[in-house]
Amino acid sequence: MLARVVRISLALGLLGLAGCKTDNVGTASANTNPSSPHVAILTPPGAGSGLVGWEADKIRGLYGQPSFIRKEQESELWRYDGENCAAFFVLYQERAGLRVRHVEINPSQGAMGDAACLAGIKARARATS
Questions:
Q1: 119 with 103: CB under 8 angstroms?
Q2: Do 75 and 62 form a contact (C-beta atoms < 8 A)?
Q3: φ, ψ for residue 53, nearest 5 deg
Q4: Distance between CA atoms of residues 90 and 122, nearest Å
């Protein structure tokens, strides 16, 4: 439980970095918006890493309405609740709109477990639509 709280705090802390300007050193993803801050966000390999770069509408179409949304100046944190897990999507405003820059599954159970979590969230979205 403590690990989950720490991970959630980390994800929320990343949103706080949205207002910080740093050099482009260590940036993990291409930043297509010159007015947007350069923030190093590293997504570990796994089920969620294939979603990095996706547009917000595509995520919503796949997983439905998030259970929780936290909005900052140029970023948003979306939380999707699964049966025994939660998926966190950190999205940043770019020229074309909001795009995913980081995905984290809690508790993380490795690529197979993370994929199962996302599949469960997707199935819930389809059942309610």
A1: no
A2: no
A3: 100, -10
A4: 18
Say which residue the tokens 């439980």 belong to. 1
Specify the residue for token string 């390999």: 45
Sign, CA torsion 41/51/73/80:
negative
Tokens of 102: 């980081």
At 105, the amino acid letter reads I
Structure tokens at 42: 């590293």
Question: What would the two tokens of residue 26 be?
Answer: 């260590």
- List strands edge to edge, sheet with 68-71: 68-71, 75-81, 86-94, 97-106
Contact 71, 56 (CB under 8 A): no
The pLDDT profile of the chain, 129 residues, written as one tens digit per residue, is 445 444 555 454 544 444 443 333 333 333 344 444 444 444 455 557 789 999 999 999 999 999 999 999 999 999 999 999 999 999 999 998 999 999 999 998 888 889 999 999 999 999 987
Residue at token pair 């910080």: 20
d(CA 55, CA 98): 6
Nearest to 3 by CA among 67, 60, 86: 86
